[in-house]
């Protein structure tokens, strides 16, 4: 902490409590503590800065502005005050004032990275990307190894279609931070835009290898490229990073990405290779998933039922098999298979849910509900089980009960995107509490921006609010991210119908029908196709 005089124990204690409150997102409490620290140490510039930042975080912009003006008068030579003031002005959308404040911060501390970066963001907000690029270059002249500066300059140049120029700062960012996945993705996109597909694929390989062949990195790479590049290229990235010496579980994860992208035949070939590599049930479940996507349900069922009770994936395989049997109408057999598996794994959430589904599709709603209530009595905190029960109640047209079941999950984990999406979509589907639905779905999108299902829910919400152009943009992106999901295709088709684009709607509905939708979604798609007639 920079001191301009002796700091009293009381001021320091308030300051530390304020920092702790900031760490726990208690911004109101932080502001209270920093005010007390300022009162005890009015000569301390950094405490003033901390107060301004807390007020901005708590959206007390008028108070933040007042505090920043006072700090400017007393500490005009302290760069931190001008940087904090710049943040206040940005929050107030006073972009000209923000520019001047940030230039003052830079003049007082030429080596400060944050001021340059925020100044560049302000220039972008002002619609002056050239000035933003100059701000990044000014920073890089002072700090050539700034990872954030190099990455953001590269990303800006990529957006401005200066693809060759973008590669230079992106490579510099990666030289200093080889695990910067976003920089790898930007570099791949720059190479793709220059027509250097082979180089782009090699870059994907290097990014994956640098991560230690991490499946979560592969997922992140794939979904970003699925959102921004042709699907064929995203699929080719899997072939580029898959190899026989990878961990079988990693290869299984790659296989599911292929199924998600709607290329089940490629996924099946990968699954067959993994099955030869590993006898574990997880590989067999992947193979069954690929077969199901190819509508070869009989073969898929045999694969699932062949998984040994000694295998760690036995319960997962049985849960999938029970669901398949139930959806095929063989509900009695589904129940028998589920009961036998539950004797070995009585607390397995997916098995319990599939047993309830067999009752439900067999017409015994009371038994289905009892299956869930009995299980929850023993494991009330099981989020998977509680969410499955909520989905069941939602299907029974008891959405209020469904939401009451799901809400306690958020008490334990406010960032559970599955629950945020479930509640948001349930409300949007019924056209009720749309403000709450939007708040929940926006939070979910912030936490998982590449989740096509969440984006679909948000697009459907916009459709319900008759914001059709925004809905079309959201749903079109959702289709890119989840191209093999029938319900998302149907939702986008509804937008096209509202725009009187019958041919495009019918094409999407036909694609959705070919993907073997289930339940209510199948009924709605088939009804729409009948109403539209053949093309």
Polypeptide structure, described:
The protein is an all-alpha fold and 535 residues long. It is built from 31 helices and no strands. It has helices at residues 9-23, 27-40, 45-57, 61-74, 79-91, 95-108, 113-125, 129-142, 147-159, 163-176, 181-193, 197-210, 215-228, 231-241, 248-260, 264-277, 281-293, 297-305, 314-327, 331-344, 349-361, 365-378, 383-395, 399-412, 417-430, 434-447, 452-464, 468-481, 486-498, 502-514, 519-532. Helix 19 packs parallel to helix 21, helix 20 (331-344) packs antiparallel against helix 21 (349-361) and helix 29 runs antiparallel to helix 30. The chain is globular. The model has no long low-confidence stretch (mean pLDDT 94).
């Amino acid at each position: 902490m920079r001191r301009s005089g002796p700091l009293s124990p009381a001021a320091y204690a308030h300051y530390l409590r304020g920092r702790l409150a900031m760490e726990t997102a208690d911004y109101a409490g932080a502001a209270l503590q920093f005010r007390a620290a300022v009162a005890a140490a009015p000569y301390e510039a950094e405490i003033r800065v901390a107060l301004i930042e807390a007020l901005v975080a708590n959206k007390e912009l008028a108070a933040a502005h007042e505090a920043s003006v006072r700090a400017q008068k007393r500490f005009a030579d302290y760069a931190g005050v001008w940087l904090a003031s710049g943040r206040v002005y940005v929050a107030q959308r006073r972009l000209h004032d923000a520019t001047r404040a940030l230039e003052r911060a830079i003049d007082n501390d030429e080596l400060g990275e944050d001021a340059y970066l925020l100044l560049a963001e302000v220039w972008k907000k002002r619609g002056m990307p050239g000035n933003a690029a100059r701000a990044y270059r000014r920073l890089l002249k002072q700090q050539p190894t700034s990872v954030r500066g190099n990455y953001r300059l590269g990303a800006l140049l990529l957006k401005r279609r200066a693809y060759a120029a973008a590669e230079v700062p992106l490579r510099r960012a990666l030289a200093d931070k080889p695990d910067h996945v976003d920089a790898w993705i930007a570099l791949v996109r720059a190479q793709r835009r220059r027509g250097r597909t082979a180089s782009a694929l090699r870059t994907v390989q290097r990014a994956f290898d640098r991560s230690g062949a991490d499946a979560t990195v592969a997922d992140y790479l794939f979904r970003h490229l699925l959102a921004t590049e042709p699907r064929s290229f995203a699929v080719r990235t899997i072939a580029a990073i898959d190899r026989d010496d990878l961990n079988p579980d990693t290869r299984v994860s790659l296989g599911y990405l292929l199924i998600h992208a709607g290329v089940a035949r490629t996924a099946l070939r990968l699954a067959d290779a993994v099955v030869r590599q590993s006898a574990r049930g997880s590989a067999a479940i992947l193979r069954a998933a690929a077969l199901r996507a190819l509508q070869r349900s009989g073969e898929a069922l045999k694969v699932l039922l062949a998984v040994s009770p000694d295998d760690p994936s036995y319960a997962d395989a049985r849960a999938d098999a029970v669901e398949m049997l139930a959806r095929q109408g063989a509900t009695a057999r589904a129940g028998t298979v589920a009961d036998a598996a539950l004797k070995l794994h009585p607390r397995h959430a997916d098995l319990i849910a599939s047993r309830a589904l067999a009752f439900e599709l067999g017409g015994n709603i009371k038994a289905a509900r009892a299956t869930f209530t009995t299980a929850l009595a023993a494991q009330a905190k099981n989020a998977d089980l509680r969410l499955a029960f909520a989905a069941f109640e939602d299907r029974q047209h008891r959405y209020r009960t469904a939401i009451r079941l799901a809400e306690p999950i958020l008490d334990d984990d406010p960032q559970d995107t599955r629950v945020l999406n479930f509640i948001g979509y349930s409300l949007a589907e019924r056209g009720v509490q749309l403000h709450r639905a939007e708040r929940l779905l926006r939070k979910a999108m912030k936490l998982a921006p590449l989740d096509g299902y969440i984006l679909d829910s948000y697009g459907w919400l916009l459709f319900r609010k008759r914001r059709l152009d925004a809905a079309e943009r959201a749903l079109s992106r959702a289709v890119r991210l989840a191209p093999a999901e029938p319900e998302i295709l149907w939702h986008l088709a509804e937008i096209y119908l509202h725009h009187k684009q019958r041919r495009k709607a019918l094409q999407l509905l036909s694609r959705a029908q070919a993907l073997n939708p289930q339940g209510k979604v199948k009924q709605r798609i088939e009804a729409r196709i009948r109403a539209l007639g053949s093309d």
